[in-house]
Design a protein that fits this description.
CATH class of the largest domain: Mainly Alpha
GO cellular component, one term: clathrin-coated pit
Strand content: under 5%
Main location: cytoplasm
Number of strands: 2
Protein name: ENTH domain-containing protein
Helix content: 55-70%
InterPro entries: ANTH_dom, ANTH_N_plant, AP180-like, ENTH, ENTH_VHS
GO molecular function, one term: SNARE binding
Oligomer: single chain
C-alpha cells in the first residue's frame, strides 16, 4: 500500500511539472525561458538532486541582463512560496544556495535586495508543512532549517560586506584573501568581537539541523549537506582570522563586554563540536581553530576576572565610602588619594 502511495505521488509530481512547463510556454519569450529552466531544476522528484547541467543552466541566467536575473529570482521565490511539496522547496533553496556560492554578481545582488519593497522576509519558512506522513514531515524539517541557514547567511553577508563563498579559499583567490586580511587588521577590537559572535551564530544554525542525518542517503539532502560543508569551511576561516588578530593584540585593550562576547562565542562554538563532527564526519576540522580557541580561553577568562574586580572596586557611591577631609585653602574637600592607590 505504501509503495502504491509513493508511486501515485511520483506520478502526480511528474504531471504537475509538465503542467507548469506548459503554463510557462504561454509567457513572454524571456519569462518562458527563465521559468522553464527553474522548473527543470526544481522538479517534484524526491529521489535525486538537480543534475549538474541543470544547475549550470540556472546559474547562466545571471550572465545576461539584469532584467533576466531579476526575473529568475522572482520566479524562483514564487515557486518556493507556492509549493507545498518538500522536495520542490528543498530544490528551490538549493538553487538559492548555489546562487550565493557560485552565482554571478548580478544574481547575488538581485537576491540580496529581493523583494525591493515591503520588507518581507522571503526566507521565513518556519511554518512550512509539506505533508502529514512521517517521510514528508522529516523533509519539511530540513526545509525549515535550510531556509533559516540561508537567511542567516544573507544577514552575515550584509554585515561583513561580502558573501562567504568557497571560491575565496581556493588557491586562485590569493589576492582576495589578502584584501580581506588587510580589512580584518583594520577593524577595531569591538568590531572583531561582534563579527566573531555573528559568525558563531551562523555555526549554531548549522548545528540546529534536523536529527534525521541518516537522510543523507537521499541524493538531494547529501548535496545540500555537502554545500553547507563548503560554507562551514569558509566560516571557520573567517572566525580563525578574527581570533588570530585579537590574539596578536593586547586583550587588555578590550572592554569587559567585548571580552565576554568573545568568550561566550568560543564556548558556543565548542558546544557545537559534537554535532559538527556527526554532521561532517570530522571534515574541515584540521585548520587549527579548535587549538586556537583552547589556547585563548584561559587568557580571556583571566582578563574578564581581572577587569571585573577592578570595576567592582571603582563602582562606588559617596555613601559607600568614608574618605578623610583636607583643606585646599578654598574649603574642605574629600581626599581620594588613598583609594586611588588601591585601584592600581
Amino acid at each position: 500500500m505504501e509503495q502504491n502511495n509513493i508511486t501515485l505521488r511520483s506520478l502526480s509530481g511528474i504531471l504537475k511539472d509538465k503542467a507548469s512547463l506548459a503554463k510557462a510556454s504561454l509567457f513572454s519569450k524571456t519569462r518562458s525561458y527563465v521559468h522553464k529552466k527553474i522548473i527543470r531544476a526544481t522538479t517534484h522528484d524526491p529521489a535525486s538532486a538537480p543534475k549538474e547541467y541543470r544547475r549550470t543552466a540556472l546559474l547562466s541566467l545571471g550572465l545576461g541582463s539584469s532584467y533576466t536575473a531579476r526575473t529568475c529570482i522572482k520566479a524562483l521565490m514564487d515557486r518556493l512560496h507556492k509549493t507545498r511539496n518538500a522536495s520542490v522547496a528543498l530544490k528551490c533553496l538549493f538553487a538559492i544556495h548555489n546562487i550565493l556560492s557560485q552565482g554571478s554578481v548580478t544574481l547575488r545582488d538581485e537576491l540580496s535586495v529581493f523583494p525591493s519593497h515591503g520588507g518581507h522576509n522571503f526566507l521565513n519558512l518556519s511554518g512550512f508543512r509539506g505533508g502529514f506522513n512521517r517521510e514528508t514531515s522529516k523533509y519539511s524539517c530540513w526545509v525549515r532549517w535550510y531556509a533559516e541557514f540561508l537567511e542567516q547567511t544573507l544577514i552575515t553577508a550584509r554585515v561583513l560586506g561580502y558573501f562567504l563563498t568557497p571560491a575565496s579559499l581556493s588557491s586562485t583567490s590569493q589576492v582576495l584573501r589578502k584584501e580581506r586580511e588587510v580589512k580584518v587588521r583594520a577593524y577595531s577590537s569591538s568590531d572583531l568581537s561582534q563579527e566573531i559572535d555573528l559568525l558563531v551564530s551562523l555555526v549554531g544554525v548549522i548545528c540546529s539541523c534536523p536529527d534525521s542525518i541518516h537522510l543523507q542517503r537521499n541524493d538531494l539532502v547529501y548535496e545540500i549537506v555537502s554545500l553547507v560543508l563548503e560554507d562551514y569551511r569558509v566560516i571557520r576561516y573567517e572566525i580563525r582570522s578574527r581570533l588570530s588578530e585579537l590574539e596578536k593584540r593586547s586583550l587588555e585593550s578590550l572592554g569587559i563586554s567585548e571580552l565576554a562576547q568573545v568568550l561566550s562565542a568560543s564556548n558556543q562554538f565548542e558546544g557545537c563540536k559534537e554535532k559538527l563532527f556527526a554532521l561532517f564526519v570530522n571534515r574541515a576540522n584540521y585548520d587549527g581553530l579548535w587549538e586556537l580557541i583552547t589556547r585563548m580561553k584561559p587568557t580571556l577568562v583571566h582578563h574578564i576576572t581581572r577587569t571585573s574586580k577592578v570595576q567592582r572596586m571603582i563602582c562606588w557611591t559617596p555613601s559607600d565610602f568614608r574618605f578623610p577631609w583636607h583643606t585646599n585653602g578654598n574649603g574642605f574637600v574629600r581626599d581620594y588619594s588613598a583609594y586611588a592607590v588601591t585601584t592600581t
